[in-house]
Write a structure and sequence with these properties.
With 285 residues, the protein is of the alpha+beta class. Helix content is 31%, strand content 17%. It has seven helices and six strands; from the N terminus they run ββααβααβαβαβα. α1 crosses α5 and α2 runs antiparallel to α5. The protein binds flavin mononucleotide (FMN).
Length: 285
């Protein structure tokens, strides 16, 4: 793969001050970033399926991805080439009408993060009072209060992912009936980012206990732009094998068969043969 040497502003470790540094961007199609030896592997079927090793990598990223709020390694920054790969993966998500309506605000500055943390604390207190109103189970409240629900200050980098409904608009192909498809597109980008980060050994935590109004003010987001996700990223010293909320006994994972129906809502498979998992690969599945 060929790289272009670029010179431009880079976020420094020094709390978000911009410095000018050189960095490298891949010149060719991002597909070239995938090792080429498997592309024409004999084990690939002619139907363009991935080789077993490639499939294993993909499923490993999916099943071992976690929402991470703790275990961040202090003072370990994300190298700019790794960050570029993760953001470029996000940028290659599907989007309604190819509108690519996302932006990524990269936040290293500590004083900005302190303000975001204050917004979290305010909204967190509100969430506790909502829990008290709707649920008189004292143990549930105690459990909720024992959960770590953000890693705003401890993570190496925060990213606010936003939605711009005006991009390539007002007519956006495919968004004419369901307006939310723009936001769905941004969520697709976030999932790409999350999986790419996992493949790079970087944890991501999504913090939604925040006020969008506060985010707008703190991050100087214009009125027509909507914050969709506030993410905390960093190298971690562990990825749990199950969601933290499952480990804490907050909620269990539903069986996949319980969320599938056939032809119409709630109906079983008319042929009587349910979808079954057939172990094929030696994966973590
Ligand atoms: C839209 C969205 C918002 C979320 N907000 C929070 C949050 O504010 N705090 C938190 O601790 N986790 C948050 N999460 C993470 C979920 O709790 C987590 O994805 C879920 O428990 C499953 O765990 P896993 O991601 O490790 O598989 C959020 C996830 C999504 C998709």
């Amino acid at each position: 793969m060929e790289f272009d040497r670029c010179i431009g502003p880079q976020l420094s470790e020094n709390n978000g001050t911009n410095t000018t540094k050189s960095f490298y961007l891949p010149r060719q199609n991002p597909l070239d970033m995938i090792s080429s030896h498997n592309k024409y592997d004999d084990s690939c079927s002619p139907s363009y399926s991935f080789s077993d090793i490639e499939k294993e990598g993909l499923y490993k990223a999916i099943f071992s991805r976690r929402d991470v709020r703790s275990h961040f390694i202090a003072d370990k920054d994300l190298p700019s080439d790794v960050l570029f790969r993760i953001l470029n993966a996000a940028h290659h998500a599907p989007s309604v009408g190819f509108s690519q309506p996302w932006n990524f605000i990269l936040i290293k500055n500590k004083s900005i993060r302190i303000q975001v943390k204050e917004s979290f604390l305010k909204e967190y207190r509100k969430s506790i009072s909502l829990l008290e109103e709707n649920d008189d189970n004292k143990q549930r409240k105690e459990k909720y209060m024992s959960l770590k629900l953000e890693g705003i200050m401890e993570s190496a980098l925060n990213i606010c992912v936003t939605y711009d409904h005006t991009r390539f608009g007002p007519f956006v192909l495919g968004r004419t009936s369901i307006a939310e498809t723009g936001v769905y597109s941004v969520c697709c980008a976030i999932q790409n980012l999350w999986l790419a980060a996992r493949a790079e050994g970087i944890g991501v935590g999504w913090v939604s206990i925040l006020s969008n109004e506060d985010l707008r003010k703190i991050l100087a987001v214009p009125n027509h732009i909507r914050p969709i996700a506030y993410l905390c990223l960093g190298y971690v010293n562990e990825f749990s094998d199950k969601p933290d909320l499952e480990n804490a006994g907050w909620l269990p994972r539903l069986e996949v068969s319980k969320v599938i129906c056939y032809d119409q809502w709630g109906s079983n498979d008319p042929s009587g043969s349910e979808l079954r998992y057939k172990p094929q690969m030696n994966t973590i599945l």
